[in-house]
Amino acid sequence: MLKGVVASDESYVGGKPRKIAGWGAPGVSGKTDKAPIHTLVERNGNKVTRVVASVTAANLRENINAVVDKSGTLMTDEANHYRAIGPEFSGGHQSVNHSVYEYARKDGTHINTAESSHALITRGVYGSFHHVSKKHLQRYLDEFDFRWNNRTATDTERRDTAVKGAEGKRLSYKSPIRRPKC
Questions:
Q1: What is the largest CA-CA distance in the chain?
Q2: CA 159, CA 153: separation in Å to the nearest integer?
Q3: Domain 5-15+25-145 belongs in CATH node 3.40.640.10
Q4: So where are the chain's domains?
Q5: Where does residue 182 rank: exposed (0-12), middle (13-18), buried (19+ CB within 10 A)?
Q6: Cα dihedral angle (84, 90, 91, 96), rounded to 10 degrees?
């Protein structure tokens, strides 16, 4: 469980937007071919990123309830999705209002860490992976989370953690298929 101050933000991952007749800009009214993701980042701690079916209050609430301890403080942007879940946190709910160019306040309220993790994911997809299917997107997000959560570890410690995480698990997507000889 993520504890303390937790930033929550959502984004879309996928190809570059194309002009399609009858479709608005990506992210407007959910009209995009990109996959929606939801990121929760503990202040100076770990992060969890998940693919969501759509960016709705119900989907975000489900993710938040699954990984965030209610004793903490939730920090979000001004999106309406968070209004109902915010009061459930004993530490309160703080938000920044991007529509009036507010990105951080002097009291420490910001979601820049979550937005930064989205930038790393976007750069990874465009720069290294070039194409990520929606089917396997969660696996890529898990890799980004692993690197983030082990950012202070040495290469040896990170390797050992990865190997321990694979113990007892079969590392294949599906059984091999015998192909007929031509």
A1: 70
A2: 9
A3: no
A4: 5-15+25-145
A5: exposed
A6: 10
Q: How many helices (H) and strands (E) does the chain have?
A: 4, 5
Q: Residue 17 has what pLDDT?
A: 60
Residue 100: DSSP 8-state: G
- Which of 150, 166, 169, 3 minimizes the C-alpha distance to 91? 3
pTM: 0.80
| pLDDT level of residue 18 (50, 70, 90 thresholds) | low
Q: Report the pLDDT value the prediction gives residue 150, as an integer from 0 to 100.
A: 94
- pLDDT for 117-137, tens place per residue? 989 998 888 888 878 888 889
Count Cβ atoms within 10 A of the Cβ of residue 148 and give its class: 0-12 exposed, 13-18 middle, 19 or more buried: buried
The sheet that has 47-51: what strands, in order across it? 47-51, 35-42, 5-13, 73-77, 93-96
